[in-house]
Amino acid sequence: MSESKPVFVDMPAGTFVFREGDAGSDMYIIESGTLEVLRSARGGTPVATLGAGDFFGEMAILEDQPRFAAVRAVSPARLLRVDRAAFAGMLRENFEIAVRIMRKLVARLRRTEELLQSAQAELDVLRRGGLVAGATPAVPHAALSAGPAATAESPRPAPTPSRRVSPIDPSKIGKPIKLVHVESGSEFALNSQKTEMLIGRPDPVTGLLPEINLGPLDNQRSLSRRHAKIVNEGGILFLREEVGTTNGTFINGERVPTGQARPLSLGDSLRFGSVELKVESL
Asked: How many domains are contained in the chain?
């Protein structure tokens, strides 16, 4: 059985792609235009604003449930509509969208776990305060105490990047440094207090806002949302490309393999997609 082909649809400004509670079996990828996500619980305030490269509606394909929000075109928009039959083929051909969908699901799971832990903590306070009849069982209290430490979302130390494949000797930076955009001169100071700094552009689908936002400099839209990270280990800075990056990360013209860390030195030339920067001291 052959896969169906995604089709383009044009949405005039002010029209709804779908409304909250509608049945649906398609997702959409925005080619051009701006759209807003609306929920009845929030009144008329948009939950998110989406633009070219963003997607929405994927949960209808994955869960076969009614639309949990409405989507309306703010400006004339051109959308690529993907139905269930074309979904698997799209994921094979566009790895970045597959990764972003997984991250969106992980963010929802994290939020659910946080709400569950908060509810458990409030219940435990009521029990210990004697507001619930009977003695407080020891086992639920112990389980609650151990719960946060056992979850996958507990804070973890930054992973140690591999140094065995580093083609450049690590250089300890003894003073604050910055990244300078070669074309415009825009500067991005690196926060020495952070162990990791994400480089990319905002992703309204997942709520991501990178510490180093190169989106305004990326006229060709060559950056991935989560393109790379700068990792600070004891004053030594490393650059690591993130999973799902499509247009490459380069140090002095050499491609950085996905997931492998490369040390940074003053004077290095960096390229993320088509965006070029230099490593300089403040």
From this structure: 3
Query: Are 87 and 110 in a shared domain?
Result: no
Residue ranges of the alpha helices (H) in 57-168? 58-63, 84-93, 95-128, 138-150
Q: Distance between alpha carbon 83 and the CA centroid of its chain, in Å?
A: 24
Cα three-residue angle 110-200-79, rounded to 5 degrees: 80
pLDDT tens string 134-174: 444 444 433 333 333 333 444 444 444 444 443 333 344 45
- Residue 46 CA to residue 44 CA, distance in Å, equals 6
Domain, as residue range, for 13 = 7-93
Distances (CA, A) of 146 to 110, 143, 262: 17, 5, 37
Contact of 186 with 180, CB cutoff 8 Å: yes
**Least reliable range by pLDDT among 130-139, 202-211, 230-239:** 130-139
**Residue pair 62/40 in contact by the 8 Å Cβ criterion:** no
Q: What are phi and psi of 148, to 5 degrees?
A: -60, -35
Provide the 8-state DSSP code for 125: H
Residues 86 and 12 in one domain: yes
Asked, for residue 158, whether it belongs to a domain, the answer is: no
Task: State the greatest distance between any 2 C-alpha atoms of the chain, in Å, as a whole number.
Answer: 70
Residue 234 lies in a domain: yes
